[in-house]
Amino acid sequence: MSSDAIASRGPAPSVGRDRGRDRRQVRKLPVKQLLGAVGILGFLATWELIPRLGIIDERYLPPASEVIVALVRDFGLTAFWISVGETMVAWFLGLVIAVALAVLLGFIIGSSDFLRKATNSTVEFLRPIPSVALIPLAVLLFGVKIESSLMLIVYAAFWQVLIQVLYGVADVDMVANNTAKTYGLGRMARIRYVVFPTALPYLMTGVRLAGTVALVLAITAELVIGSPGLGREIALAQSGGAISGMYALVLATGLIGVLINMLMRFIEKKTLSWHSSVRSEVIA
After folding, report:
1. DSSP, res 10
2. What residue ranges of the chain have pLDDT lower than 70?
3. Residue 80's pLDDT is what?
4. How far is CA 223 from CA 97, 174, 231, 232, 254, in A?
5. Could you tell me which of 207, 219, 209, 178 has the C-alpha nearest to residue 90?
6. Which of 149, 266, 163 is nearest to 215 (CA)?
7. What is the pLDDT of residues 188-244, one digit of tens each?
8. What phi and psi, each to the nearest 5 degrees, are found at residue 56?
9. CB atoms within 10 A of CB 100
10. Sign, CA torsion 82/83/89/92
11. CA pair distance 274, 64, nearest whole angstrom
12. pTM passes above 0.90
């Protein structure tokens, strides 16, 4: 068949589908962003109207415009960024410690049926205990220093990662594991080439959840215990009657939470770019 005849048939079906998929992605992206912007504007407009209409006294809920002005003003203050830095240091250290401990114990426990059964009841007993219930113990041990925040953050984030790692290790294909054993791979080699790739998606989900939980506990510890950070600044603003400033700091914590979630999702997609779950998100 001549090249002219082939060209007259037009592009191959797969190419046409790819181009159609690309056009759909281009159309979907702005719509999604537009809907997100509309939702934010609707929330701010509702917030602005509630105190303006007298539904809630402005002394307790200032209009959104006043809070945003206070937040922008905070952005220019060195003390604000110092508090943000203190919160983020506690968040980062607590998250790293929790992930390291959970990954180590998760692979050790998950790789042994005996350890899994022996620790199951202990895990199910300790996991539901709220981290805030440990605040009195943290204060007794460390006072109002960063160590108190770290204790609560590590405890809360640890379980998020550990449970996911245990699920991931349990999901390993036994046929693949036995095949690797037949080919002479040792325990560490099987963990590296068989168990870890299977558990990695679960691990990344646990880290993403732990990142959000760690921020919540960091703010809570600073708010209740008084350790340095944004939480303590919120408490000081509330006790000093700076209500707009208090809400501005609350907004700041929300923005940090959004940024952390975006960062975690970015890391997850980059790490799992080979995995079908991430590839399906890109294709859909």
Report:
1. -
2. 1-29, 275-284
3. 94
4. 22, 48, 4, 5, 15
5. 219
6. 149
7. 777 777 888 888 889 999 999 999 999 999 999 999 998 889 999 999 999 988 899
8. -130, 135
9. 13
10. negative
11. 43
12. no
Residues recorded for the chain: 284
Closest CA to 207 of 168, 173, 170, 171: 168
Distance in angstroms (rounded) separating the CA atoms of residues 217 and 160: 13
Would you report the helix, strand and coil content of the chain in percent, each value rounded to 5? 85, 0, 15
The two structure tokens encoding residue 161: 């990662």
Query: Is residue 81 a contact partner of residue 141, using CB atoms and an 8 Å limit?
Result: no
First to last CA, the chain: 36
Q: Is the dihedral of CA 246, 89, 211, 150 positive or negative?
A: negative
Residue 161's identity, in one-letter code, is V
**pLDDT value, residue 29:** 52
Helix axis angle, 230-239 to 243-271, nearest 10°: 160
Tokens of 141: 């041990």
Name residues whose C-beta falls within 8 Å of residue 99's C-beta, 6 or more positions apart in sequence: 157, 161, 207, 210
